[in-house]
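Q: I have 87 residues here and want to know how they pack in 3D. Can you give me a structure?
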Amino acid sequence: MIVLPQAFTMVCRQHGDGWVLALGITGLVILAAAAALGTEALGVEGEKALTGLGGTVLAIGHWKNFRRCRTRRCEEQTACATAEAIV
């Protein structure tokens, strides 16, 4: 968890896309809420729905970061290597 703020900040600085940062943080907050509330507060279906929503938001953030990296043709190979490994 300590690495996450640094990773989000690096992405925002490197690609200049605040949406990637917002989507990443939002997705993680939704996932954390699903884990914290659990089935007691949300029920099984509610927890599944919240987890699915958080995962989807996080995946969209990853996708936008990947597309941004590809379109800007990152100068640093290490920045794009992780994104290319996913596809």
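Q: Anything worth noting?
A: Residues 18-72 form the longest helix (55 residues). The CA atoms of residues 11 and 46 lie 31 Å apart.
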